[in-house]
Design brief:
The protein is an all-alpha fold and 117 residues long. The protein has helices spanning 7-27, 38-48, 58-74, 79-87, 100-116. The protein is built from 5 helices and no strands.
């Protein structure tokens, strides 16, 4: 993908990849709970990889598209992540992070878990 790597392109690539480093460090900590941050982190990374036609070169657009595809393949979330996000008072009503349908599923999952316990 990257044949002619010049300083400008290298800087743009670093700019694209920096949030992945930050996300990895944030979600990998063992000093605080992070389960509730998985979905918001994926949403932020996905937003970061959105194309900017006026600003992105063809190579950068292609890299962003590739990374976005890889994000969908390898960054899987489950209902436990949605429930954890729902239980965080700062995130529970953020319908960008948890769209209404996902919010409802997480709420139902949590209610079922409470009934079992």
């Amino acid at each position: 993908m990257i044949v002619d790597l010049n300083d400008v392109l290298l800087g743009e690539l670093v700019e694209i990849l920096e949030p992945f480093d930050t996300a990895t460090k944030c979600l990998s900590t063992d000093k605080a709970p992070t389960l509730h941050l998985v979905i918001p982190t994926k949403v932020q990374l996905s937003k970061h990889l959105s194309p900017a036609p006026a600003a992105d070169s063809a190579v950068i657009a292609q890299v962003k598209q590739h990374l976005h595809n890889q994000l969908e393949v390898y960054f899987k979330t489950s209902s436990i992540h949605a429930v954890a996000t729902l239980l965080d008072h700062r995130l529970k009503n953020n319908f960008v992070i948890l769209p209404p349908q996902q919010h409802l599923r997480a709420s139902n999952k949590w209610q079922k878990q409470c009934q079992v316990a």
